[in-house]
């Protein structure tokens, strides 16, 4: 008695379907785990930032109009270092700094 090729082909197709189903179950389980991790991260982020209206200082440097940032003044005003701004004399700053460090320089 020989093997019927049609029965063999049907059995192989059914076996592939089972393997595909098992793969899909594993993918779904991984997706559920990923979603759970994402929700935990979101909850942790929300708890860490809840009620905190203080802006990060670096962000305030680039955009002082954000909530929690202190407005530093109108545009065109020199910064606290005296270099930034349209009315700063960079060469005067360099000359002053040179005069300060000049005694420590090697001849």
List the helices and strands and how they pair.
Layout: H1 5-49, H2 57-62, H3 90-101
Structural notes for this entry:
This protein is mainly alpha-helical and 107 residues long. Helix content is 59%, strand content 0%. The chain contains three helices and no strands. The chain has helices at residues 5-49, 57-62, 90-101. The termini are far apart.
Short description:
This protein is mostly helical. It has helices at 5-49, 57-62, 90-101.
Question: Which characteristics define this entry?
Answer:
mainly alpha, 3 helices, 107 residues, single chain, elongated
Q: Percent range for helical residues?
A: 55-70%
Mean pLDDT level: 74
Order of helices and strands: HHH
Strand % is: under 5%
Based on helices, strands and strand pairing, what is the structural class? mainly alpha
Low-confidence stretches: none
Count of DSSP H/I helices? 3
Radius of gyration: 34 Å
Query: Termini separation (Å)?
Result: 106 Å
Biggest beta sheet summary: none
Tell me the total number of β-strands: 0
- How would you sum up the global shape? elongated
């Amino acid at each position: 008695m020989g093997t019927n090729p049609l029965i063999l082909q049907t059995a192989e197709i059914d076996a592939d379907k089972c393997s595909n189903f098992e793969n899909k179950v594993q993918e779904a389980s991984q997706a559920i785990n990923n979603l759970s991790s994402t929700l935990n991260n979101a909850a942790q982020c929300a708890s860490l930032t809840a009620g905190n209206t203080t802006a990060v200082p670096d962000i305030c440097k680039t955009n002082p109009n954000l909530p929690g940032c202190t407005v530093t003044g109108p545009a065109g005003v020199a910064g606290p270092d005296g270099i930034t701004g349209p009315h700063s004399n960079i060469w005067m700053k360099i000359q002053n700094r040179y005069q300060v460090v000049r005694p420590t320089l090697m001849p």
